Automatic annotation (TrEMBL):
Residues 1-30 form the signal peptide. The keyword Lipid biosynthesis does not apply. This is Putative aldouronate transport system substrate-binding protein. Residues 436-502 form the DUF3502 domain. Pfam families: DUF3502, SBP_bac_1. Keywords: Signal. PANTHER family: ABC TRANSPORTER SOLUTE BINDING PROTEIN-SUGAR TRANSPORT, ARABINOSE-BINDING PROTEIN-RELATED. The lineage of its organism: Bacteria, Bacillati, Bacillota, Bacilli, Bacillales. It comes from Paenibacillus prosopidis.
Length: 506
């Protein structure tokens, strides 16, 4: 990606390059300027290293056994031990920033939105390191994925992604559907009818608990009319793009009818008791506890974690998926990753960190990380497929340090249509290139406005999306508090996008 380097952006990039490019200068035999230890001892063997890695969430059951096997394999190759620090999802964003700002000694850090940390000079540029030590990192990621996730033509974090869109699905209590005599859900209208029937016939369970605002609002509006190509602008409430026209819109001056229709419908669902009264604070984890008949997840199909947790919580319960996607769609993609793994500039083990990531991008090692012990946790089910062993499944954690579309397997126990959707979303040729591909917004010039808009979004915008307030009344309050900030962020985003597109067309 080649952003035009001028104005503020030039200063940011220059600062990054001045401060941290020296970290890539190690010749593998002497300490680097950041204090990195020599790669090898005099006998040519790699010196032992412990890599400290920040990971989101909780360790999966069986993690210690998988880690022990990883370290056993590494002992004969890279001579690496692993200090993996799992941070609960509720705390990971805050603790990541504290660790980075205090120069804590991490070697690898998961990041879902690394742009600001890149701009602040907190992450090491990785082009030279990946070129030298990461052939498998590159081989397992398409050119579209690698290029679209660079900033100013440089790679600051390895993109972790298996999809060229951000898929999501409705997950339904199959046992309740069958109990009520309802045929498999085939349309969104049928899904809504099922929710109302649950409220009537199974009042002890909440009909619908979506995963917060993630899969409704703009995201749902787009899926109900895919030709509109509606998309939220990052996490900036009130801003969106449509029609792949290179323009940024706001919901105050240019409300799209499908977005408003969605707001109105969810207000009715809330009033009618289809949505939980505390919908703003509940997430899709409630589904696995048996407390909801329908929820939403970032998957096609029902993931292994959810299936096993639900069956444990509610004996006899089962789940199935209903998706608004189909493999005949020709959607656009920016090829942006949803997860990244970065090397902090303070790491003393930069080379070994990239060597380790490359090791994870080798088939047998990736299988271990993702699916556990072969023969104990999983079985090979053919090219690109695996079958969890039901009595001892391992819900792996590759999305935060190894995820790639070439090595990742699909659960063969999923329905055929779900397997087909997963294969479809992993092929870049199934998508058209979005006009925003390669563009990365630098929020620094409007950092104060972004912070204020984020706060206003939590207080005023999220309740609109979740249906808690009448849309027109909620929008009026949100506009009163956030309009100026929305306009300033919109203007800066449009300015940078125009400059990017102009440079791209030269």
């Amino acid at each position: 990606m080649k952003l035009r380097r001028r104005g503020f952006l030039l200063m940011v990039v220059s600062l990054i390059l001045t401060v941290i490019l020296a970290g890539c200068s190690s010749n593998g035999s002497a300490p680097t300027e950041t204090g990195e230890s020599p790669q090898a001892s005099e006998d040519g063997k790699l010196n032992p290293v412990t890599l400290k890695i920040m990971f989101p969430g909780d360790p999966p059951a069986g993690w210690e056994e998988v880690k022990a096997e990883m370290e056993s394999r590494l002992a004969g190759t890279l001579n690496v031990k692993l200090n993996v620090v799992f941070i609960p999802w509720t705390d990971v964003l805050q603790k990541r920033q504290v660790a980075l700002s205090s120069a804590e000694d991490y070697d690898l850090i998961w990041d879902n939105n690394p742009v600001q940390n890149m701009a602040a000079g907190l992450y090491e540029p990785l082009d030279e390191l990946v070129e030298k030590y990461g052939p498998d990192i590159k081989a397992n990621r398409s050119a579209e994925l690698m290029e679209a996730n660079k900033v100013n033509g440089k790679l600051y974090a390895v993109p972790l992604e298996v999809n060229f869109i951000r898929p999501w699905t409705f997950v339904i209590r199959k046992d309740i559907r069958e109990q009520l005599g309802v045929e498999p859900i085939k349309s969104y209208d049928e899904l809504i009818e099922f929710m109302y029937l649950v409220k009537e016939k199974v009042p002890e369970i909440t009909p619908f608990i979506p995963n917060g605002t993630e899969h409704i609002g703009l995201r749902l509006a787009n899926m109900l009319d895919p030709t509109a190509n509606l998309a939220a602008v990052l996490n900036y409430p009130g801003l969106y793009t449509k029609g792949n026209d290179g323009k940024v819109y706001n919901i105050f001056d240019n409300m799209d009818p499908m977005i408003m229709k969605n707001f109105e419908q969810y207000h009715k669902l809330y009033q009618d008791g289809i949505l939980a009264k505390d919908a703003l604070t509940l997430k899709n984890a409630e589904f696995a506890k048996g407390k909801a008949a329908v929820s939403t997840f970032f998957d096609f199909g029902v993931n292994l974690n959810t299936r096993t947790a639900l069956e444990k919580s509610v004996p006899g319960a089962s789940a199935e998926a209903f998706s608004l996607y189909d493999s005949g769609m020709k959607l656009s993609s920016t090829y942006k990753a949803g997860n990244f793994i970065a090397v902090p500039v303070v790491s003393k083990n930069k080379e070994r960190a990239i060597q380790f990531l490359n090791w994870l991008n080798q088939k047998d090692n990736y299988d271990l990380l993702a699916y556990g012990i072969k023969g104990k946790n999983w079985e090979d089910a053919g090219e690109g497929l695996y079958k969890p062993i039901q009595d001892n499944p391992y819900a792996g954690v590759p999305f935060a340090w190894g995820w790639n579309p070439k090595l990742d397997r699909i659960d063969a126990s999923l329905p055929e249509d779900v397997i087909a959707l997963n294969k479809w979303q992993r092929d870049p040729s199934n998508f058209t290139t979005d006009i925003l591909t390669g563009f990365t917004f630098n929020p620094s010039p409007v950092a104060n406005e972004v912070a204020q808009l984020s706060n206003a979004g939590v207080e005023f915008y999220n309740p609109i999306v979740m249906g808690l307030v009448e849309p027109n009344e909620g929008l009026a309050k949100f506009k009163e508090k956030a309009y100026d900030n929305v306009k300033k962020v919109q203007a800066e985003y449009q300015k940078q996008l125009d400059e990017y597109l102009a440079g791209k067309n030269q």
